[in-house]
Design brief:
This protein is α/β, with parallel strands linked by helices and 297 residues long. It contains 9 helices and 10 strands. The chain binds adenosine-5'-diphosphate.
């Protein structure tokens, strides 16, 4: 690195080992997106899309302009939860998201496919590119909070999202049946490699509350989530029960009518947005970091 390095690699001709390759993508010129929150999980079916939807609904109820970018291209379930049947049509300016009944802006591959049941049989790079285009080519307008429903795991697409989008923080969703410790370890390490703060852990399907006696039943045994969270220096920010009326609301496309307070703690954390930056664990910054090609540096 030259002594008078300005860190502006884009405009510098020097070939040095410290050159930073920037894979970040600019959103559409008509999009102004303030905060991007990724919702991740280790595997499918644990309720990641459910948490994404409920977070968007909660922030909308607080009066924020809210959007959902459905990056779960092979398992898109967001439009169904919001009962969206229209298709997004490209225009000369770009692609407009579809507004839900309460005004949450949504883009998902299912809004572009002719039939909801058409499978997306694409290879990883094509899927990753589609997610990137949801960021660059969609006219999101003014958004205070965008929630990104990430594909499960730590593969190609999550890596692309982390590299291309300015993700401000992630929420990790687990369920008690999972190998929680390993899943959390992988998600936390990936986030730290990309220098993205972990807002916290949500344990979904944590318990079942008996409608007759209000007693909580831990169907999958006593949860170890607190222990695991402590091990990685993160917080358990919500525990959600198995709730048949929640599943029903989702199936009927009425998630926006569902009342709950399970995610209030995260809503408050996001509202004090400086908190998200504080969640950077300094000991991990610059340590075990990935460069923008996904290589360890
Ligand atoms: P993922 O995005 O992790 O694949 P989903 O959010 O699509 O998972 O949830 C999988 C299924 O489980 C959906 O049918 C959803 O309605 C249901 N579900 C998720 N969380 C709950 C819950 N807390 N109570 C009842 N059903 C739930």
């Amino acid at each position: 690195m030259s002594e008078d390095c300005s860190q502006s690699c884009g405009s510098c001709g020097e070939e040095c080992g410290d050159r930073k390759v920037d894979f970040s993508e600019q959103p559409h010129e008509l999009s102004r997106i303030k905060k991007v929150i990724g919702v991740v999980s280790g595997k499918g079916g644990v309720g990641k899309s459910m948490v994404t939807s409920l977070m968007a609904v909660s922030m909308k109820r607080q009066g924020y302009n809210t959007a959902i970018l459905d990056a779960d291209i092979t398992g898109p379930s967001i439009p169904k939860a919001f009962g969206i049947k229209e298709k997004a049509m490209p225009t000369e300016l770009g692609l407009f998201p579809i507004s839900s009944k309460t005004g949450i802006e949504i883009m998902s591959i299912n809004l572009l496919l002719e039939h909801d049941t058409d499978p997306v049989v694409w290879r990883g790079p094509v899927i990753a590119n589609t997610v990137k285009q949801f960021w660059t080519d969609v006219i999101w307008g003014d958004v205070d909070y965008m929630f990104v429903d990430m594909p499960p795991g730590t593969g190609d697409v999550p890596l692309t999202v982390f590299q291309s989008l300015p993700v401000d923080g992630i929420i990790i969703v687990t369920s008690p049946q999972e190998l929680v410790s390993m899943i959390v370890a992988k998600a936390v390490k990936m986030a730290r490699m990309m220098n993205i703060p972990v807002i916290g852990l949500v344990e979904n399907m944590s318990y079942f509350e008996c409608p007759d006696c209000d007693k909580k039943h831990y169907l999958f045994g006593e949860s170890r989530i607190e222990e695991v969270a402590k091990q990685y220096g993160i917080d358990v920010v919500a525990k959600m029960p198995i709730d048949s009326s929640l599943a029903g609301a989702c199936d009927k496309g009425l998630i926006e009518l569902f009342e709950n307070n399970w995610l209030d703690h995260i809503v408050q954390t996001l509202e004090k947005s400086e908190k998200v930056d504080e969640l950077f664990s300094p000991e991990f910054v610059g340590h075990d970091t990935l460069n923008h090609q996904g290589n360890r540096v």
